[in-house]
Write a structure and sequence with these properties.
The complex is a heterodimer of chains A (155) and B (751).
Chain A: E1 3-8, E2 11-16, H1 23-30, E3 50-52, E4 55-57, E5 71-73, H2 86-93, H3 103-116, H4 122-126, H5 137-149
Parallel strand pairs in A: 1-5
Antiparallel strand pairs in A: 1-2, 3-4, 3-5
Helix pairs in contact in A: 2-5
Chain B: E1 12-16, E2 19-25, E3 32-37, H1 44-48, H2 71-74, H3 77-85, E4 92-96, E5 102-105, H4 115-127, E6 134-135, H5 156-183, E7 191-193, E8 196-198, E9 204-206, H6 207-214, H7 244-248, E10 264-269, E11 277-282, H8 284-287, E12 292-297, E13 304-308, H9 311-320, E14 322-326, H10 335-345, E15 357-365, E16 368-369, E17 377-382, E18 387-391, H11 396-407, E19 414-418, H12 432-444, E20 448-451, H13 454-460, E21 463-464, E22 467-476, E23 479-490, H14 498-504, H15 516-524, E24 533-541, H16 555-572, H17 577-582, H18 588-600, E25 611-620, E26 623-632, E27 640-649, H19 656-676, E28 681-682, E29 685-686, E30 705-710, H20 724-740, E31 746-747
Parallel strand pairs in B: 5-6, 10-20, 15-31, 18-19, 23-24, 27-30
Antiparallel strand pairs in B: 1-2, 2-3, 3-4, 4-5, 7-8, 8-9, 10-13, 11-14, 12-13, 15-22, 16-21, 17-18, 17-20, 22-23, 25-26, 26-27, 28-29
Helix pairs in contact in B: 3-14, 4-5, 5-6, 11-12, 16-20, 19-20
The chains are: A alpha+beta (155), B alpha+beta (751).
Keywords (chain A): 2Fe-2S, Iron, Iron-sulfur, Metal-binding
Domain 2Fe-2S ferredoxin-type (chain A): 2-78
Protein name (chain A): Isoquinoline 1-oxidoreductase subunit alpha
Chain lengths: 155, 751
């Protein structure tokens, strides 16, 4: 079985897996990294959203071989130890989550958005495609604006 | 649950509002207190009579003909479920550990509704504990609870508010007594604060240091009475979820995230049509694929399970199965045919349209998938003599019974661990994946982690049944004289223990020719307006397909149709929709929430062409809510709700922040089911396959401005989890109608 090496949450990992295995299942079933969630498997619900070289991606639709030599960051790698990322802090301040299942993906999407667009407008936020079946969208919007207002520190 | 024997202690007779609870020590190394009902009520009426919930009020307004009080005015579904649960011993168990943790074992599900946070607040309040010192784990299935482990009907806070406070107050009294003995001080001179008992001289003993001594306190030296509402400091204060940090760091664990030793990824090949089955299959190619561990047909013939080292390998092998499928029982049926059957089944009006002015309307509602973000997932480890399962469940006792029956094991040989759920909306009343996981684990002889795919969930999961509504209102001289609502739906499956619970509570719901559905309908559906002689009748069309309660159940369509009619009748009578409603609402709290959204939402403010406001109101679960939304329907095919103002009176909000979250979620549900999200049936199959075509709202459909106004506390907590859906849905429909000049009759509108 082919071997793949990439940087996962700051640490290099090597894993044996078929080339075409979506990274989501490598993370969840082989590496025990369960923050990225399965919600559809076809890149539509975006519950698995994580970062590849700092940019948003959906591990359910990206093969492990395409991650070789690159930096993969999941929700588990966002905080600096016990010090949360400002977007995570904003999520707590706004008490965004309900069931919480989509929130790792929502947070990773928001972090990527703020990297690209430090002061997003409502129209920018409207571009987010992540589904939240509990309907936390208004608090997600509020939390993104709060994190944006707090400035670029930590991002 | 550790303690079994009841100690010799004299029970504390804590009278908590409506019902009295006995609390007593359980034999355990550290303080462990349980509670049960003091004396079972003689009748339903006796139990509900002291309930200060609003009784039908006299007609306050001129110009409206009073209707008869509906059944839910006297006793509603929540009352019935509370009654069913009352006789259960060991209702709740609270422990204080030597490490100073306060642990309340919660016999309910947490699926995002915020119940664990609300219960932790109640516990922290009574004990004067820090909220962060309180844990609220979900109890395993406890058959001793009989009917008191059913999460549904917006009933959890309603049913738990009194007993949680009783058990926590009893624990506090024992902790204080233990400290008094240690310090040889009068117990009455001590106070509690920050998970500790404090003496007047400043000495302090943490609850943990008192836990062992308090376990020996049989008769507390201070009253074990919960605080009167006026002394509550935490309850009623907006509070963040206790699991928020776990969620934002990815540490929150759902069934699919559990590392149960040996449990292997498992998926099931399912037929293309609803309730179709396997005619024959060839697994030779699949068995030879990498990572595949076993291929097992489901015993019921509904599919073929594949076990593999990873879900990816299981999915690929599933796709390599050669299966010949038997078409499902509805293979000749599509939406149009279902709609015809519903129309034919609907019962006739009593009042003929002759000689009276009348407004008639008909409405159709599509099927709607529950589609929780976490697809159904269950871990099962079945051995010859026992079984252990892990999954999110609103009905774990019923699930345990069903799994035991399926496996031929005694019920107590089956352990059901209730795991936090990634959303539910009624879906986890059923335990389809758990039953399959048990079957497959037994057949394969190894533990499995069985997951439905999103496609499985859409094509074979349960749905809110499609319905057809016919309404006639007659009027004269500006007054509504009669109001008739006829509902026909595809039959809703309530076989998750509800019927047994209602029967136990003394409701002969299946007597007199009524079905269980009709019993449910009777206990929940009430038109809140005075509209003269009002009748509403349910007819059901049984179809062999998976249905189930969807957040707000019948009210999600019945009350929406009512609210659209209210706008249409008002228009016919030349009256303002808010004023028309207000004049016909029976209770002051109902009028207050309507007034609040009208004032805060600036009802009637000028709007550009293609934009409009709409209102909706709903009263249920001893609570009421009003929604005012503004919509931009400049392009009627792509409407956008731009603003929402919500008001609610739930009697008493334990956690206003959690309540706001529920009301906001209901708004997004309303936007979704009215404007865009539903399921089509094409020749016995569900057309939608994922969130790509099941168009639940995304951020771009959510209003940028949402305001929530909560009424001040006025009594015990009512229910709130489902409360907002009908009012929100109606407000969206009414705003769309006013913005476009159309009269929407079929939902979702863009479908």
């Amino acid at each position: 079985m082919p071997s793949h090496t990439f940087v996962l949450n700051g640490r290099p990992v090597t894993v044996d897996a078929p080339d075409d295995m979506p990274l989501l299942w490598v993370l969840r079933d082989k590496l025990g990294v369960t923050g990225p969630k399965y919600g559809c498997g076809v890149g539509v619900c975006r519950a698995c959203t994580s970062h590849l070289d700092g940019a948003e991606f959906q591990p359910c639709t990206v093969a492990v071989k395409d991650c070789a030599g690159r930096r993969v960051t999941t929700i588990e790698g966002l905080a600096d130890g016990e010090v949360l990322h400002p977007v995570q802090e904003a999520w707590l301040e706004c008490d965004v989550a309900q069931c919480g299942f989509c929130q790792p993906g929502q947070i990773m999407t928001a972090v990527a958005l703020l990297r690209r667009t430090p002061a997003p407008t409502d129209a920018d936020i409207d571009q987010i495609q992540n589904i939240c079946r509990c309907g936390t969208y208004p608090r997600i919007r509020e939390a993104i604006k709060r994190a944006a207002a707090a400035g670029p520190a930590g991002r | 649950m550790k303690g079994q024997a009841i100690s010799t202690s004299t029970p504390d007779r804590a009278s908590v509002g409506r019902r009295r609870f006995l609390t007593y020590l359980l034999a355990a190394p550290t303080l462990t207190v349980a509670t049960r009902l003091a004396a079972p009520p003689a009748t339903a009426a006796a139990a509900t009579a002291p309930d200060p919930a609003p009784a039908p009020a006299p007609a306050p307004a001129v110009g409206a003909l009073p209707g008869l009080p509906g059944v839910p005015d006297v006793v509603d579904l929540g009352d019935a479920l509370i009654l069913a649960g009352l006789p259960t011993a060991h209702l709740l168990v609270l422990e204080v550990t030597a490490a100073g943790r306060v642990v309340l074992h919660l016999p309910r599900a947490e699926v995002g509704q915020g119940l664990t946070t609300a219960v932790a607040m109640l516990v922290a309040e009574e004990l004067d504990a820090r909220l962060e010192d309180v844990d609220v784990p979900l109890s395993d299935a406890r058959p001793d609870l009989l009917f008191n482990q059913l999460t549904g009907g917006s009933n959890s806070v309603r049913s738990l508010y009194d007993p949680v406070r009783a058990v926590a107050a009893a624990a506090r009294a024992r902790l204080v007594t233990a400290a008094a003995r240690r310090w040889d001080l009068p117990a009455g001179s001590l106070r509690t604060e920050d998970t500790a008992v404090l003496a007047p001289d400043g000495r302090r003993a943490g609850f943990g240091s008192l836990a062992v001594a308090a376990a020996a306190v049989t008769v507390p030296a201070v009253p074990a009475t919960p605080k009167p509402p006026g002394q509550q400091r935490l309850v009623g204060t907006p509070t963040g979820r206790i699991d928020a940090r776990d969620i934002v760091t990815g540490r929150a664990r759902y069934a699919g995230d559990l590392a149960v030793p040996g449990a292997v990824p498992t998926v099931v090949a399912r037929p293309p049509t609803i309730n179709g089955g396997v005619q024959s299959f060839d697994a030779s190619a699949a068995r030879g694929m990498p990572g595949v561990l076993a291929v097992v047909p489901l015993p019921g013939g509904g599919g073929v399970a594949v076990l593999a080292e990873t879900f990816d390998q299981a999915l690929k092998a599933r796709d390599a199965l050669q299966v010949s499928w038997r078409p499902g029982p509805l293979a000749d049926l599509s939406d149009a045919g279902i709609r015809s059957r519903l129309r034919a089944a609907n019962l006739p009006f009593l009042v003929p349209p002759l000689l009276t002015l009348h407004v008639d309307a008909e409405f159709d509602f599509a099927f709607v998938s529950h589609a929780p973000m976490e697809v159904l997932t269950a871990v099962a480890d079945v051995r010859p003599d026992r079984a252990e399962l892990w999954f999110s469940s609103q009905s774990p006792i019923v699930a345990q019974q069903a799994v035991a029956a399926e496996l031929g094991l005694p019920q107590d040989a089956v352990t059901v661990h209730v795991v936090r759920g990634g959303g539910s909306f009624g879906r986890r009343l059923f335990f389809d994946a758990a039953l399959e996981a048990a079957q497959v684990s037994r057949a394969a002889g190894r533990p499995v982690k069985l997951m439905w795919t999103r496609n499985d969930d859409m094509r074979h999961g349960r749905m809110r049944p499609a319905g057809h509504h016919r309404i006639r209102a007659t009027h004269a001289l500006g007054q509504v004289l009669t109001y008739e609502h006829r509902v026909a739906t595809v039959r809703t499956d309530f076989r998750h223990g509800l019927g047994e619970a209602l029967t136990a509570a003394g409701f002969a719901v299946q007597a007199g020719g009524l079905s269980l559905s009709q019993g449910f309908f009777l206990l929940t559906e009430k038109n809140p307006y005075q509209l003269g002689v009002t009748t509403q009748l349910l007819a059901e069309v049984p179809l062999d397909m998976p249905t189930g309660s969807w957040r707000s159940v019948y009210s999600g369509t019945v009350r929406v149709a009512d609210e659209i009619m209210m706008d249409e009748i008002a228009r016919t009578l030349g009256q303002d929709p808010v004023a028309f409603r207000r004049a016909r609402l029976g209770s002051a709290s109902a009028r207050a929430v309507l007034d609040t959204v009208a004032a805060e939402g600036r009802w009637g403010r000028p709007m550009p062409a293609g934009h409009a406001q709409g209102v909706g109101f709903h009263e249920e679960h001893r609570s009421c809510a009003a929604y005012l939304v503004e919509i931009d329907a400049t392009d009627p095919a792509q409407p956008r709700v731009t603003r929402a103002v919500i008001a609610a009176d739930v009697g008493r909000a334990v956690n206003p922040r959690g309540l706001e979250a529920q009301l906001t979620g209901a708004l997004i549900d309303g936007i979704s089911v009215i404007l865009q999200a539903g399921n089509h049936i094409d020749r016995g199959a569900v057309r939608e396959g994922s969130f790509a075509d099941f168009r639940y709202a995304r951020q771009q459909h959510s209003p940028p401005v949402v305001e929530v106004h909560l009424m001040p506390p006025s009594g015990p907590p009512g229910g709130a989890g489902e409360l907002g859906v009908p009012a929100a849905s109606a407000a969206v429909a009414n705003a769309y109608a006013r913005a476009t000049g159309r009269s929407p009759r079929s939902f979702p509108i863009t479908f």
